[in-house]
Amino acid sequence: MRKFRIAVLILLVLVNSCSKEDEIRELNEIVANLQTNITNLNSKINDYQNQITQLINETTYQSNQINTLNDQINELDIQIQNYINEIQ
């Protein structure tokens, strides 16, 4: 009976050891998948940051164009007023 208990105990230790190795393997796979996901997310974040920077640059450029056009409109308005004053 004692040999049976020892055999069962050894069997339990082996099963538990194999189970732990399986868990470690699964956890390592999960970690590898998470690292891949993190890398992909960081890449997407960088892409979005580049797009945002490009949009900011385009917005700044367009804002400068609007300011230039407003200056031209104001100058034309002054010229029109001067012309009207000359005519009168």
Task: Describe it.
- The protein has 88 residues and is mainly alpha-helical.
- It is 98% helix and 0% strand.
- It contains one helix and no strands.
- The longest helix is centred in the middle third of the chain and has 86 residues, at 2-87.
Structural class: mainly alpha
Number of helices: 1
**Main sheet, how many strands, which sense, barrel?**
none
Q: Averaged pLDDT, please?
A: 90
What overall geometry do the principal axes of the alpha carbons give?
rod-shaped
Helical content band: over 70%
Low-confidence stretches: none
Quaternary organization: single chain
Alpha-carbon Rg, integer: 37 Å
Strand content: under 5%
The secondary-structure element order is H
Question: How many angstroms separate the termini?
Answer: 127 Å
Number of strands: 0
Fold topology:
Blueprint: H1 2-87
Short description:
Helix content is 98%, strand content 0%.
